[in-house]
Amino acid sequence: MEPRLQPLETIAYGAIGLVTFFAIWTIVVLSGAVPHTFLPLPTAILTRFTFLLTHSFAGATLPQHLLASIDRYLGGFLLAALVGVPLGLLMGWFRWLDDILSPIFDGLRFIAPIAWVPFAALWFGTGYGGPIMIIFAGAFSPCLINAHRGARFVNASLTEAASMLGTGHFRTITEVLLPASLPSIVAGLRVAAGLGWQSLVGAELIVAANGIGYMMVQGQANLQTSTVMAGMVSIGLVGFGMDRLLRLAERAVGKRLGRPA
């Protein structure tokens, strides 16, 4: 295995990759191989992005659309974490509960979040509930699976010691399983965060009256490719930021438990 790169080397290689990507993009557009209407220059997207920061489009500025999307996202993601993590720990501890719920969960978890859109539209229309349901569908599975896996692989000596001391189920779960499963839980939250964010955008393309996905749909309807791609840039930046925060949390948990980063 090659030695780990230094931070400055990582930044340099990343910059080379970005410059090469945008250079190829610019050459393709300027060559006329793709019409500007369908693939604008990177500078045109940057100009449009800057414009949307302060000017309204589809009823709101870009930051306002993003705030609406983040509001929905946090609702669905937090709901998935609050339900999925405790349920995963309980399934990992109580074998009978695992046997009851696993067949149901295994049948539902392979349904793509976007497949719930028709139900969300029928049940909630374009209100707050529809996107929440779809985000929950995307983020729930990683939360439950990683909490369940973490609980199952807890050192048996810890649970046996708790049992010998007469510790009840609730205290064993909260004081033994939860701390020992924390690295797996945080890793699951990181995966769930990405899937939930992707699910949100898919939901907003269909069942929302505002938000970044809705803005992109309106841009497509008006043949404004630069608006659509400015929205894509926003989605990527917010997703990258969330992932970095959860990576820091994951490293902090690992460091606290004495594990390598």
Keywords:
261 residues; 10 helices; MetI-like fold; mainly alpha
Secondary structure: elements and pairs:
Layout: H1 7-30, H2 42-54, H3 62-93, H4 95-108, H5 117-124, H6 129-152, H7 156-164, H8 169-204, H9 212-221, H10 225-256
Helix pairs in contact: 2-10, 3-4, 3-6, 3-8, 3-9, 5-6, 6-8, 8-10, 9-10
Task: Specify the CATH class.
Answer: Mainly Alpha
Give the CATH architecture: Orthogonal Bundle
Into which percentage range does the β-strand content fall? under 5%
Largest sheet: none
The CATH topology assignment is MetI-like fold
| Domain module tally | 1
Question: Quick gist of this model?
Answer:
This protein has helices at 7-30, 42-54, 62-93, 95-108, 117-124, 129-152, 156-164, 169-204, 212-221, 225-256.
Protein architecture, described:
The chain is mainly alpha-helical and 261 residues long. The chain has a single domain, classed as MetI-like (MetI-like fold, Orthogonal Bundle), CATH 1.10.3720. It contains ten helices and no strands. α3 runs antiparallel to α4. The relative contact order is 0.13.
